[in-house]
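Appendix C: a fully annotated inverse folding record. The material below is reproduced so that readers can follow the format used throughout the book. The structure is listed first as tokens, followed by the designed sequence.
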């Protein structure tokens, strides 16, 4: 499984990340690897944006990381073959 890079507080860097996100998607698809694109959702996510801006420009606090987790967890669970609640294997 592959996860793309998240948005940061620097718009020039976000422009580069936006382009890189497309490349990650193409590469993952070409290799048959599940890919989670988080950039667009986090770029607009109010908690992520606020916490990244208040911090070092790239890393949020726990609530921001919770938003990232909520984007990644469903694909991660499917990839591992477990239920979204984390217990039983999927048939």
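Designed amino acids, in order:
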């Amino acid at each position: 499984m592959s996860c793309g890079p998240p948005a940061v507080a620097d718009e020039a860097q976000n422009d580069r990340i936006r382009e890189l996100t497309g490349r990650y998607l193409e590469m993952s698809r070409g290799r048959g690897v599940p890919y989670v694109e988080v950039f667009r959702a986090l770029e607009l996510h109010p908690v992520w944006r606020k916490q990244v801006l208040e911090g070092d420009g790239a890393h949020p606090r726990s609530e921001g990381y919770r938003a990232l987790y909520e984007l990644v967890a469903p694909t991660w669970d499917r990839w591992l073959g477990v239920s979204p609640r984390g217990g039983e294997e999927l048939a």
